[in-house]
Design brief:
With 149 residues, this protein is an alpha+beta fold. The chain is 26% helix and 29% strand. The protein has one domain. A six-stranded mixed beta sheet has the order 1-2-3-4-5-6, sandwiched between helices. A hairpin with a 3-residue loop joins β3 and β4.
Length: 149
């Protein structure tokens, strides 16, 4: 087992995709930058699983993406808030030179992704799920961001 070591986590802004407002994060193993063009292909694998319309009863049309450049594999994680307090996740994987594909049943997020997910959970609870939050709560959620070195 390889000992745990922190990985840099960066926030890269909010983008709108098919009506959803999604926060973008990156996680990089070792020093380097994220190849967003390659990750765009990964997110295409799972993008059609976002429900339509983006905003519906219990679905505020917000979520986040994680571009995780791991050790030997890349993971494109797509998450959105739905049914008021649930977080569906879809994951695309690319190992080495293989093409991007949907994650298999035995593939999931990892401990570094969970840092982002935990921060996003807290942000969502404290803003969107706050009593009477409305659109102001959504704006506050989108303004909350996480990063780690």
């Amino acid at each position: 087992m390889i000992p745990y070591a922190p990985r840099p986590i960066r926030f890269h802004g909010v983008r709108e995709l098919v009506g959803f407002r999604l926060k973008d994060y990156s996680i990089v193993h070792r020093a380097g930058t994220v190849d967003w063009l390659d990750f765009a292909r990964g997110f295409e694998v799972v993008l059609d699983q976002l429900p339509r319309p983006a905003v519906a009863n219990g679905r505020p049309g917000v979520g986040f993406r994680i571009a995780h450049q791991g050790d030997g594999a890349r993971y494109a994680v797509l998450a959105w808030w739905d049914r008021e307090n649930e977080l569906p996740l879809r994951i695309a994987v690319r190992r080495g030179a293989e093409p991007w594909r949907a994650a298999r049943a035995d593939e999931s997020v990892c401990v570094w992704d969970l840092q982002v997910i935990a921060a996003e959970r807290n942000a969502y609870v404290e803003t969107v799920l706050a009593a009477g939050a409305g659109e102001a709560g959504l704006r506050a959620y989108l303004e909350r961001r996480f990063s780690a070195d």
